[in-house]
């Protein structure tokens, strides 16, 4: 069976699962949210990472259906989490361009959130710079629609695209996620450190929350603390975990 055929079969058989990586407050060290990350629980090969199949799913027109399965799983998990813990910070879901531009996205969201009886305030969407830079007017219309429905938006992998912070001011987004390539060599690399400090400072003047990705050690965290970065994700705190393990971590940390 070709890889593409296996991927189609995976959609039919619902072989996808969702792991959760905590988003942690830099100041309090508490879990304040999570990023939902798809994995393929392949019947022969075990857990397959999204970098291995998201591109093909997009090219082969499968990303819409895959995204709906992710939404369904995440909403189910949020409902369970809220039953156990009450209100919890937002869970962030990554959107591909085709999903972001799908005119039926809001309808689908309404259906799935009503089914699982959760509110849009539990969900955030991560989109990339290129998704909003290609067609400003349409992108702003989609972002306005999502915001009006109660979802928030964040710009993922910030710094790797070509958008400027001045441009971002025009977009109705709530937060920025600094790409992990800038965090990686901090604080030893003076240029990367300066870039991170500048992004945080400018984002703050624009009223945006800043999340640092890929934090792996305490010196990186100290640098983020010194510039009042809001939240971080990374192996220093936790990798992405299966839902049950994420729940255990949430209970033991918060
Ligand atoms: O999980 P990992 O850290 O390996 O994620 C790799 C990439 O896959 C990230 O860029 C992330 O944005 C993307 N990704 C993870 N889950 C999803 C998903 O549900 N939908 C889409 N479109 N992309 C995802
Ligand atoms: O959506 P995004 O492209 O940012 O996906 C997050 C990716 O980053 C996932 O593939 C996840 O496994 C990875 N990741 C998360 N934390 C760390 C980290 O601390 N270090 C590194 N190198 N990768 C990380
Ligand atoms: Mn992401
Ligand atoms: Na990212």
TrEMBL record:
Residues of the EAL domain: 1-254
Source organism superkingdom: Bacteria
Name of the protein described by the UniProt record: EAL domain-containing protein
Organism annotation: Undibacterium baiyunense
Included range, full protein: 807 to 1060 of 1062
